[in-house]
Amino acid sequence: MNAEEFWNLPRSAAPTKVFLELAPALPVRLPAATLQQGVVIEVRGAGGGVWSGRLVDGRLQTQEGASADPICRVVLERGTLRELVAGSLRDRGLQIMEKLGRPRAAPDFSRLPVRDDRARALTGLQGSVALDIVDRRFGETLRVVFTFGAGPAAFETASATVTVDADEAVTWIAGRVDPRVILKSGRLRVDGDLSLLTRALGLLLEP
Predict the structure, then answer these.
(1) Considering only CA atoms, which of 96, 106, 90, 182 is closest in space to residue 142?
(2) Rounded Cα distance, 45 and 162, in Å
């Protein structure tokens, strides 16, 4: 898949197709690293299910079902997956990339300081972080919940909830802004256990 195909993915793509066919083929640049553990993703709603993903030599490998001892469990609804991959948030990304002078360029996360030991340390955290993306244009909130440790995946409740405007979230991602800088900017609303969020970001992003 090239960048042009990425920006034109159909909104109708089923979750199975997204994870088993599209995700490994995305032209997204990822860190040149290998993680011994991956993540488990649960998509709720009609046509949903459970999939696992792991970074191997800078490439994403996926499979159906839950892998043992994941770094974290991610839960979202099918509608949220659609908007992230091929809907309103994807379209915002296209517009912002054009403003940044990188029209239709593939997303680049290759500079993230990914380390296997730090990723594995996330499993020692207990609790969950919910990311609520408020899409004011369409009057809806898209929720993605990350649960660490051996506990059951959360969705309705979370140890900490981060609320962010959709336009700002996409602008920060496209601009590769450090999430710790964003957290200190006062542009996010954080409810609940802030320490869990800061510990998770420290493990993920500190070199």
Answers:
(1) 90
(2) 23
pTM of the model: 0.90
Interatomic CA distance for residues 190 and 56, integer angstroms: 33
Averages of pLDDT over each 10 residues, the chain, 207 residues = 82 87 89 93 93 95 93 94 88 85 83 89 92 90 90 86 90 78 80 91 81
CB 40 within 8 A of CB 152: no
Indicate the SS3 state at residue 179: helix
Cβ pair 186, 161 in contact under 8 A: no
